[in-house]
Amino acid sequence: MKEKIIILIPAYNEEKNIQKVIKNCLPFKTDLVIVNDGSTDKTLEKINFFKKKVTILSYHKNQGKGKALQTGFDYALKNNYKGVITIDGDNQHEAKNISYFLKEIKKNDADLIIGSRFNNTKDMPFTRLATNLSTSWIISKIVGRKIEDVQSGFRYLNKKAIKNIKLETNRFDTEPEIALKAGLLNYRIKNIPIKTIYHDEAESQINNFLDTIQFFRLVFRGLLWKKKLKSL
Known about the structure:
Layout: E1 5-11, H1 18-25, E2 31-37, H2 43-48, E3 55-59, H3 65-78, E4 83-86, H4 98-107, E5 112-116, H5 126-143, E6 155-158, H6 159-164, H7 174-184, E7 189-193, H8 208-230
Parallel strand pairs: 1-2, 1-4, 2-3, 5-7
Antiparallel strand pairs: 4-6, 5-6
Helix pairs in contact: 5-7, 5-8, 7-8
């Protein structure tokens, strides 16, 4: 590729998993950026072990996943990267699937590539599966085309997408926000299958009640964004 991409990992209190994720990403020889989102455990200490191999951006106080991703996107734009592959810090994404994204980036000039877990739902907790299916269906209806797995944090955004999609959410409505805005902007969206690992050390930070409210607030705001985003 003429322009390089980065792998971006937002991390909040992932001391048990973050080193595994970084180690699994390093073999791809792709620039790696970790955003420590004000972790109160030993996450930053674990990340600093790789400080000669990765770029570390860190906050003193937790500001939410949306802010962590936006910080990484701004870094990518400032340093003229072609785009960003995002992967969560909880080791539930198989980092080897990054190769699928790299192949897709080379052959398909998509603005947003989403790693879909819907081909691998056998071990997915029922509540999570139901949430992912329902939120993906709602977002798809709003934008008028099918977007798979809008909750997946394993995805690629090109330079145009990270420049025009400015995040306004901070929790687990951030991934749906990106999918929603990309759809409203009529961007080229590609879904590719990925495998997800469900393990005991991955502690869910989802608040079912709060994040459900946040999602439906996002849906309402999305209806208001339609006219605004058409001008971009």
